[in-house]
Amino acid sequence: MASPVSVYNSNALDTHISSTSRESLKMELLADVSLLPGEERIIDKETMYICPFNGAVKGKVLITNYRLYFKSSDADVAVTLDVPLGAISRVEKMGGASSRGENSYGLDITCKDMRNLRFALKQEGHSRRDIFELLFKYAFPLSHGLPLFAYVTQEKYAENGWSIYKPVEEFRRQGLPNNKWRITFINKKYELCDTYPTVLAVPFKSKEEDLSRVAAFRSRGRIPVLSWIHRENQAVICRCSQPLVGMSGKRNKDDERYLELIREANDTPKLTIYDARPSVNAVANKATGGGYEGDEYQNAELVFLDIQNIHVMRESLKKLKDIVYPNVEESHWLSSLESTHWLEHVKLVLSGAIQVADKVSSGNSVVIHCSDGWDRTAQLSSLAMLMLDSHYRTLRGFQVLIEKEWISFGHKFASRIGHGDKNHADQDRSPIFVQFIDCVWQMTKQFPTAFEFNERLLLTILDHLYSCCFGTFLYNCESMRDQQEVRLKTVSLWSLVNSKMEMYLNPFYTPESGRVLYPVASMRHLELWVTYYIRWNPRIRHQQQSPVEQRYKELLALREEYLKKLEALELSDSSPSSRLANTPNTPTASTPPQQYTQLQTPL
To answer: Active-site residues (predicted)?
Structure first.
């Protein structure tokens, strides 16, 4: 007999299932699925998963308010799928009532995490209607007036991840405020700029009224503010949006004077302004009221970094997905990969960040912007800071970097990812943050001992970028998060990470506080991140665990064990009873003392 949930139809979407029925369903699938707090079963159904690697696989699919879970019933082919609904971009019906051919009727699901799913159902009696409508409803809750799952789940962790980043503390770590830079709270009610954080660092000589006048000349009011300062040479990285020059070539004396104050703060001979865009795009932006800094900005030089816009990046990743999922095209692999231009874009982003880091390291202050200062600008500032400051290469420091440069400074996560939104074709969608994490991964490959965190952390961050299980990446800016009470009503991703830190630590890590990292940004030295982009291919998955890393972890554990034994022996040697036993009358007196040396495991 079918369970009560299986016959749940479209006319009764909001009907409450009786508690008895719920309990029987829980018992039935308890062995398969461990539910999160607040997670509820919505519907389960016998189905056929059209697996790209094993062909058609019989089993049961379960939809909860958080995930799609499939388990094969065929003993010969063990297939399990566990997909957070937040990772679903699109749900479509496949075939119709009159479709001919085996497994031609069912559902096509496109995911944001580099995979697609296809399920075949029986054609009789509109058997897919209920599951389609329920899946559509819970995969896109905001489009149906439902809360995101982060507001529903109340999982408890040992650490509170919301406390990881405190702006004033982070500025103090950098040595601010000082006699050249001050901290201002002019934006505490988001009146200066509704997409900026409340705490900003600005030139000491600037007045509050100056900031308001500069904001009127910068796109979205995103004025140049300090992101990072070099402790020794006092050179700074400032970020902002484009100036509103327009076709008529408007000038703003306050903006020009403000950039001069940034230059004067450490007597940089010339302030370097890095415009992330190709020069053609920057010129084109004049037509819509934007533009770039011209010759009227004294003691400044403008450098275009040729990084393409969000639309180009979206299409590039789409092409990459086409060549890696479901099957990797072996015969023309290199030319196919090249045709996506993905690694070329990664190269340009890294190359731009290297230029920023090098300029600051040599004592010159820089200003970075793109159009609105929340996509390419965030990539460049955060990567340059990662190269310059070893603190950001620690596990907690990296969390601070993401909170500071991406989340607090208003990268539009909601628009770029589309959390809970059914509009899969929205032109605002773009993998800008994924590209940043890819750049970080490239750096970890080139400097395997420089980062305290491992690849698992990067994969976890990207998985929960989509999952909607945590509040960390929800909404476009701080003001929206305050309105939606994200910190009060949801859990931070860093609560999970910092409660299980040992999972995310790099065993090869060697702290080096003053070292600046300059990765090689050439196509010969960049790799496709296989364990992310091609991880759904079972042949790739088996190779994910590095045998070297595994062996090194074992050696570290062994070293820890020996050190504990050594400590215990030293304690027993120093105890009064052991000293009494080792008197000159005892037979052991002539035995030379044992020498203990700490084990050093070479890299």
So the answer is: 370 (phosphocysteine intermediate)
